[in-house]
Structures
1.
Amino acid sequence: MADVPRSLVSSSARWIAAKTLLVAPYYGADQDGTRGGWPQAFVERIRRSEFPQYIWDCLPIDGSSESILRLDQVQCIGNESKSLEILPYRLGDLARALVGEWLYWLVEGCLLADGLLAGARRDLETL
């Protein structure tokens, strides 16, 4: 994200150039008695990458053993918001490329034919 020079917005409201983060929520998928979780048959289909709005994951944090990322709930929040907790985990280059393709699939309605995600989905269909 490019910084906006202060001289361009010095007499404007701060929100015009305030930095924001694009975030999407994760939900615990487990049905463990303390939470309803997600139906297992649905999680299985999400795990096979059948839907562009859902990504199955196992997060390196305590709590749920399986999580679902909802790309259809992406939103901007303030960079210094108390609505999020920044953890020390980061996606590697390959994972970032895969999420980028997944967002493309959600927004454009089609997969990149020669992309990582298309290949992964072909592999997952055989499981």
2.
Amino acid sequence: MNSWEMFERALLRSGSERIELLNDAETALGWPTEASDIEVDVLRASIASVLAGDGQVAPESARDLVVSVSSRQGSSGWPGFYLAEAGNQLGRNDIVLDAVSSVSPGFFEARDLKWRSARCDELRAVALIRSGAEWKTVVEVVTRLVSAFANFGESDDFAPPSDLVHALLEGPPEAIELLNQLALSIDLDLWFGAEIAARVEEVLGRRMESGD
């Protein structure tokens, strides 16, 4: 089993089993391989990013690797994607924003992976909301994301934007408008189930009753 296979298997595991596989994958990077230097560095940065989410690598160290890889010609968006997920898991909005910024526009679309591009936008939006960013920027990202879900969500098998919904429910008063935009664009029951859909509708209903 080569390093890539170990890494991919690790993504399907959790706990100590995943950490062991990731460490084995990193060790195997020193073995003779036909992979190019950039491919090896992409995998090394991806492994570090996932390990960061598991508390095994300092997020800042993983970020340095990701930034270094993304600055090179022919760079990959995978390390940034994995680091963004790790940052979200750790509640590190700064790490999330740096990570998604390292992913070249169109990287995942070119590989017929629109759902991963949408996930990057979701992670960006959540980090912006939780870090108190300028609301205009939040609106731009969420509007683009909602459009992607409305147009491609079902056909491209997007994952439900649960993190975004929770961030909007917990966000500032302005978040209600974006929550309403999402509710008008997708079937909440279909995407989230009755419990979350009812909570969203309750929040929107209270806002309408208050006249805001």
